[in-house]
TrEMBL record:
Its main location: membrane. Residues 17-84 form the YetF-like N-terminal transmembrane domain. Gene3D superfamilies: bsu07140 like domains (3.30.240.20). It is found in: Cell membrane. The keyword Ribosomal protein does not apply. The keyword Thylakoid does not apply. It is a multi-pass membrane protein. Keywords: Cell membrane, Membrane, Transmembrane, Transmembrane helix. One of its GO terms (cellular component) is plasma membrane. Residues 88-159 form the YetF C-terminal domain. It comes from Jeotgalibacillus salarius. The chain crosses the membrane at residues 12-29, 41-58, 64-86. This is DUF421 domain-containing protein.
Amino acid sequence: MFFNDWETIGRTLLVGVLAYIGLIMILRVSGKRTLSKMNAFDLIVTVALGSTLATILLSKDVALAEGITAYFVLIAMQYIFTWLSVRSVTVSKLIKSQPELLFYNGEFYRGAMKKSRILEIEMLQAARSNGLSSFEEVLAVVLETDGSFSVVKKEGGESVQSTLQNIQN
């Protein structure tokens, strides 16, 4: 129960170090996008990579080469889908959510808040986190695709190049 044998411990150490090095090498080759802030699509890949690492470490039935191949497949699939999503609006819409406008110019968008399961208090917290002392200083609050809030402060006037141009209300 607490100890089987030294061979199992040695295998776990050796395979663990090699699997970790393999994962780091593949992640470095795949680029910064693989390790970026996560939306749902990225989270799935990250969880799958963690699960694969655990399986490689703890299962004698999975050879190191098979585990490294699994890493490669997961990261290659993420690379392919992100490459396609940059080049195709249809693919992008299929695998990524859109930012959601929750508050604009003094008005809470209750329907969007309910759909996204967001409370007003969470937006107040986001405003405080952005150094604002009053919600009257806020032009807009957006729920981003990674689940974070963007708080847009009021300025002298809205620009033609507004950061809210891709948000639908």
